[in-house]
Amino acid sequence: MVPIEHALALSATLFVIGALGALTRRNLIVILMSIELMLNAVNLALVAFSRQWGDQAGHVFALMVIVVAAAEVVVGLGIVVSLFRNRESVNIEDVSLLKW
Amino acid sequence: MEILFYVFAAISVAGALGMVLSVRNTVAGALSLVGTMVALGGIYVMLEAYLIGALQVLIYAGAILVLFLFVVMLLNLRRDSFTPERQPVGKAISVLIGLAVLVQLVTVFLGSFGPPAELSEGFGTYRSVGIELFTDYVLLFEVTSLLLLSAMVGAVILAKRKID
Question: Looking at domain A4-92, which CATH architecture does it have?
Answer without folding.
Answer: Orthogonal Bundle (1.10)
